[in-house]
Amino acid sequence: MSLIDVRVPQLGDFKNVPIVEVLVKVGQVVAVDEALLTLETDKATMDVPSPVAGVIQELVVVAGQKINENDLILRLASEAAATPDRPAPSPAMASGSGGASGGVAPVASPAPTAGAPTINEVPADQTFPLVVLGAGPGGYTAAFRAADLGLKVGLIERWPTLGGVCLNVGCIPSKALLHAAKIIDEADSLSQFGVKFQAPEIDLDKLRGWKDSVIAKLTQGLKGLARQRKVEVISGEARFLSPHRLEVTTAAGKTIVGFEQCIIAAGSEPVSLPGYPADPRIMNSTGALALADAPKRLLVVGGGIIGLEMASVYSALGSEVTVVELGPGIMPGCDRDLVKPLEKRLKQHLKAIHVGTKVISVVAKPEAIDVVFEGTINETQSFDRVLVAVGRTPNGERINAHAAGVNVNPRGFVPVDRQQRTNVPHIFAIGDIVGQPMLAHKATHEGKVAAEVAAGLKRFFDAKVIPSVAYTDPEIAWVGLTETEAKAQGVAYEKGAFPWAASGRSLALNRDEGMTKVLFDPTTHRILGAGIVGPNAGDLIAEAALAIEMGADAHDLGLTIHPHPTLSETIAFAAEAFEGTLTDLYIPKKK
Ligand SMILES: Cc1cc2nc3c(=O)[nH]c(=O)nc-3n(C[C@H](O)[C@H](O)[C@H](O)COP(=O)(O)OP(=O)(O)OC[C@H]3O[C@@H](n4cnc5c(N)ncnc54)[C@H](O)[C@@H]3O)c2cc1C
Question: Strands of 494-499's sheet, edge to edge?
Answer without folding.
Answer: 468-470, 476-480, 527-533, 515-520, 494-499
